[in-house]
Automatic annotation (TrEMBL), chain A:
Location of the TonB-dependent receptor-like beta-barrel domain: 345-716
Leader sequence residues: 1-23
TonB-dependent receptor plug domain span: 124-226
Membrane topology qualifier: Multi-pass membrane protein
Family in the record: Belongs to the TonB-dependent receptor family.
Family matches, as PANTHER family: HEMOGLOBIN AND HEMOGLOBIN-HAPTOGLOBIN-BINDING PROTEIN 1-RELATED, TONB-DEPENDENT OUTER MEMBRANE RECEPTOR
GO CC terms in record: cell outer membrane
Designated name of the protein: Outer membrane receptor protein
GO molecular function annotations of the record: siderophore uptake transmembrane transporter activity
Keyword Transport included in the entry's annotation: yes
TrEMBL record, chain B:
Protein name in the entry: Type 1 periplasmic binding fold superfamily protein
Keywords for the protein's UniProt record, in alphabetical order: Signal
Highest taxon above the source species: Bacteria
Signal sequence bounds: 1-18
Biological source species: Echinicola vietnamensis (strain DSM 17526 / LMG 23754 / KMM 6221)
């Protein structure tokens, strides 16, 4: 966003300059060029090219190209600058059209007193995009992906107890948003509310959230938005570096340790590698008045990558493994609906345990492995071909409280294999046009591993999804326009045993989606963007096939194989103001989803020898979502900043004119950040979350009241040397140990959220 | 170089594609389910010696927790006021052909029956239960016990609500009372929750 903004300003300056003094000489020469990294020969995007005498500027595009038009004959001095590289002055003689290559030498030491604030968006889109960069990520290290993303306005979480949290973008979660983990769409068992994404935030250098529909670029599930988890680029030069992080928290006595090491080889220029590992452990979480029984967790992740980059060719091989064991609040597994009602009436768990790290049933054990091979090749015409292949294996086991040796047998045991192949071609950027075409293929197989002793919740299935897309972008002066279209085809072949009979069904879905976006810079302060995108989502396998008891919810859920695809239209508008003192961004959106699939209470009860259960069925309706997100950042004094972040969302079932369940409540966070050399950085913030007054007609319990939380943190450099540094921070969340429940927690009916928590973070870079 | 990498990728893709397609589903026999419960009442004298013949009442659900099954619960219609009975409970899983009674016995410290409903609790109650078995810690289970019918019973019918709790805290205050209304406070979950009608 910032980059585009600067680019637009520069183009504006360029347009305003008519240079009357030189109008006699010939002024119709083109000065073109490409900026590349001297070592890797990779194009350098976002470099500023400045012609001193003409006061003209340009910024290189993602191919490293820049272009000045209508340059007069003469001698000039050209200055090239970009963070991370030594700046360069070049003599430029213009007597004819010029086409030059500029090689920049990378500068991998920190510049004194300069904070690196530059950021390259993970995706080049006109859609509203916000991100958590390295600094913000470092400040939030130690949490899971959902918790980490809460720092962004418009992003909330859908949680199941203290350890399972799913990111929510503008009220959408699970299969309605997409997570790209290192450029690969994450394929786990996302359908479940208690199935958290299998992503290690320690791996990321940047996490970005696109809030608009990006179905065209990424495929169906991107209807509500996209989360991009991006690791740092592999090194291309000789030398080694690394980081080590330690995080400790007082609530649950949780700890996290992470390590990463990377380097290149002297004899093989362009070659780079990285190994990375992280681990987390936590015990019973404490609400202000009690420990939550069996809420410990353990996680161990590692990854490795090797890559090679030359002038034309880039290749990368990446492997990661994620493994977690999560304890589920034991009280949440109720036998029947009257148990559940008693528990809700009690308002807190009946159990009163002590602290322990020990995890018992019910628990989840999940592993996720990703193998990715990626390559790109620069064609002679300046176009680029990108190819990414990935293989993912996801194994999810859920253990219930059962009798005897069955306790050691998973009640749900699913294995999901996914192959994805993405090929796209970025055509050479011509005068005002940039764009790409691509195809993507996904093949998936889901298997229930036999022997659970429980009739599976979802069937075994094969799925194939093929998509082809085209995106084109037009840039002229302060205006940028972008449009694209995509066609998708999906085939699903499912098989299961239903009441003793083999039941095989297959489905085909196909859909066309398109989007149109625009960005316009009014002047150097104001920037407007708008994006209108259509999207679709085929019904998920659980929505089609659920038939039976959902133990965690004491509910019988009934799917419908005849559900049709959801069709959506999302319109996102952003106004951005930035000046020296004030940065502000306001995003407003409207999201209409036809055939919206939701779980509706039928009001009926299912009677069994275990008692009665409420019956829910999957239905379709038309739903409308709208809302706004606001971020402002005001510099009161050079050392003192005041920020406000807020979001509100309204969602309605348009057919029945009532409200949808689990829609995030209005929230407003405001805080002060004070920075001084001697102390470091001091932050104090206050979060206010309103009560959800727009409740669905039927719910197990009324929405909990709103709440207010205070958070404080101090962070500073503890040790700075030429080649290494040690940073530390100490934070307190929920300072006043407030007892509260959050509407977006599936366990809110009977547990409070986490109480006060002190967190100490140390990060060593070398 | 380019050709090579593309070829490698194609090879990798085809290997991976071959290695994963869906397996044929395997029907699961639901293990955690109880499909048949029987209550056997036998009249006893003051010395707990058997003096009558056994009366058996059943509750069954052929599909267990699966949908589409029929739940059939007998009426308890043979109790006589003023008499005392030995009550034995058995549980069976007809889907996996398993004797659940044995499992409950083996894990006695994790299981306990409660006898609630209007037949045991409230102004018009007319039954009283006493545990006659215990687990390894000396706490009651409820697979065996004695039911005493009030002398004045017979004017009103009532509900015999049989509850089996799993994974409860047996040392919780009140848990030694077989007709403890607030059994949920001891934690755990219900494996059985059946309403038998008691009629005279």
């Amino acid at each position: 966003m910032i980059k585009m903004f600067i680019r637009v300003i520069l183009v504006l300056i360029f347009a305003a300059n008519c240079l009357p003094a030189l109008s006699q000489v010939k002024c119709a020469f083109d000065v073109k060029g490409k900026v590349i990294d001297q070592e890797s020969q990779e194009p350098v995007e976002g470099a500023y090219i400045w012609i001193k005498e003409l006061e003209k500027g340009a910024v290189t595009n993602h191919n490293g190209n820049f272009h000045f038009r209508d340059i007069c004959e003469g001698h000039y001095e050209l200055n090239v600058e970009i963070l991370g590289y030594a700046s360069k002055n070049i003599q430029l003689n213009v007597h004819e059209n010029v086409n030059m290559t500029i090689r920049l030498e990378s500068k991998d030491y920190l510049i004194d007193g300069v904070e690196i604030v530059g950021h390259k968006d993970a995706v080049n889109t006109l859609n509203s995009i916000t991100h958590l960069g390295k600094d913000l990520l470092d400040e939030n290290r130690g949490g899971n992906l959902g918790e980490t993303l809460k720092a962004l306005p418009g992003v909330t979480t859908f949680t199941t107890g203290a350890n399972i949290s799913k990111p929510v973008i503008h009220g959408m979660h699970s299969n309605r948003i997409m997570i790209l983990n290192n450029e690969v769409r994450q394929e786990g068992q996302q359908w479940g509310g208690e199935h958290a994404p299998e992503v290690d935030p320690f791996m990321a250098e940047d996490i970005s959230v696109i809030k608009g529909a990006e179905t065209v670029r990424f495929g169906s599930e991107a209807m509500g938005g996209v989360i991009l988890v991006t690791p740092p680029k592999l090194p291309v030069a000789a030398g080694t570096s690394g980081t080590a992080t330690l995080v400790g928290g007082s609530n649950g006595w949780n700890g996290a340790a992470a390590f990463s090491f990377e380097g290149g080889l002297k004899d093989l220029e362009g070659f780079g590698y990285r190994i990375q590992a992280s681990s987390r452990i936590g015990g019973n979480i404490k609400s202000p008045a009690y420990y939550q029984d069996n809420t410990g967790m353990k996680e161990l992740n590692f990854s490795g990558a090797v890559g090679y980059n030359s002038k034309k060719l880039g290749m990368e091989l990446f492997y990661s493994r994620f493994a977690t064991t999560i304890g589920i609040l034991s009280d949440s597994h109720t036998g029947n609906s009257s148990d559940l009602e008693e528990l809700i009436a009690n308002g807190r768990p009946f159990s009163n345990p002590d602290f322990t790290y020990h995890i018992e049933n019910p628990r989840q054990e999940v592993t996720h492995q990703l193998l990715k091979a990626k390559g790109h090749y620069h064609l002679n015409n300046d176009g680029v071909i990108n190819l990414t292949y990935a293989f993912q294996q996801n194994n999810r086991q859920e253990f219930d409280i059962r009798r005897g040796e069955l306790n050691d047998r998973a009640a749900l045991d699913l294995e999901l294999f996914t192959n994805t192949l993405d090929i796209n071609y970025e055509h050479p950027s011509s005068k005002n046009w940039n764009g790409s075409i691509g195809i993507s293929a996904l093949q998936q197989a889901n298997n229930n591993i036999p022997g659970t002793g429980v009739t599976p919740l979802i069937p075994n299935y094969d799925m194939v999804n093929l998509g082809a897309f085209m995106i084109e972008k037009y840039t002229k002066g302060p205006l940028e326009l972008e449009g694209g279209a995509r066609f998708d085809y999906r085939y699903v072949d499912a098989a299961r045993y239903n009441q003793g009979e083999l039941d095989e069904q297959d489905f085909t879905f196909q859909n066309f989606t398109a989007f149109l976006g625009a960005g316009y810079s009014l002047n150097k302060n104001w920037l407007l963007t708008t994006n209108l995108g259509s999207a679709w989502r085929p019904p998920n396998i659980n929505e089609q096939f659920s038939q039976g008891l959902h133990h965690g919810a004491a509910a019988v859920e009934i799917g419908d194989p005849n559900l049709v695809s959801e069709q959506a239209l999302k319109w996102v508008n952003t106004v951005n103001y930035s000046s020296e003192k004030l940065n502000a961004e306001l995003t407003g959106y409207y999201h209409k989803i036809n055939n919206y699939i939701y779980l509706n209470p039928t009001g009926e009860e299912y009677v069994s020898l275990r008692g009665t259960f409420n019956v829910f069925e999957y239905l379709q309706t038309d739903a409308g979502f709208w809302g706004i997100d606001l971020t402002t950042d005001y510099t009161i004094l050079p050392s003192l900043e005041w920020f406000i972040k807020g979001s509100l969302i309204r969602a309605k079932n348009l057919t029945d004119q009532n409200y949808l369940p689990f829609i995030p409540t209005d929230r407003l966070e405001t805080g002060l950040v004070y920075q001084a050399d001697k102390i470091g950085k001091l932050e104090l913030s206050h979060l206010s979350v309103a009560k959800q007054r727009r409740e669905p007609d039927v719910d197990l319990a009324p929405a909990p009241p709103g709440y207010n939380l205070w958070t404080a943190r101090i962070s500073r450099d503890l040790l700075v040397k030429e080649k290494s540094s040690l940073k530390g921070s100490l934070g307190i969340t929920n300072i006043f140990n407030t007892e509260y429940k959050d509407y977006m927690n599936r366990f809110r009916y009977f547990t409070h959220e986490m109480g006060r928590n002190f967190t100490l973070r140390l990060k060593y870079e070398f | 170089m380019k050709k090579l990498s593309v070829l490698t990728l194609i090879a990798m893709v085809s290997v991976a594609l071959l290695s994963c397609s869906k397996d044929d589903p395997v029907p699961e026999l639901d293990q955690e389910v109880i499909t048949n419960v029987s209550l056997t009442f036998t009249e006893v004298d003051e010395n707990d010696d058997i003096i009558g013949s056994a009366m058996e009442y059943n509750a069954s659900s052929d599909e267990g927790l699966g949908l589409g099954g029929d739940v059939v619960i007998d009426d308890i219609d043979g109790l006589v006021s003023g008499k005392r009975y030995l009550l034995k409970i058995t549980a069976f899983n007809g889907i996996a052909n398993e004797d659940v009674t044995e499992e409950i016995e083996e894990e006695g410290d994790h299981h306990q029956f409660f006898f609630v409903g209007s037949a045991f609790i409230g102004n018009t109650s007319f039954l009283e239960y006493a545990y006659a078995d215990e687990d390894e810690d000396g706490n009651p289970i409820g697979l065996m016990g004695y039911v005493t019918v009030n002398e004045n019973a017979g004017s009103e019918n009532g509900i015999f609500n049989l509850v089996l709790r799993h994974d409860l805290d047996k040392n919780h205050e009140g848990a030694d009372n077989p007709s403890w209304e607030n059994f949920v406070q001891a934690g755990g979950e219900s494996d059985l929750d059946i309403d038998f009608d008691v009629i005279f």
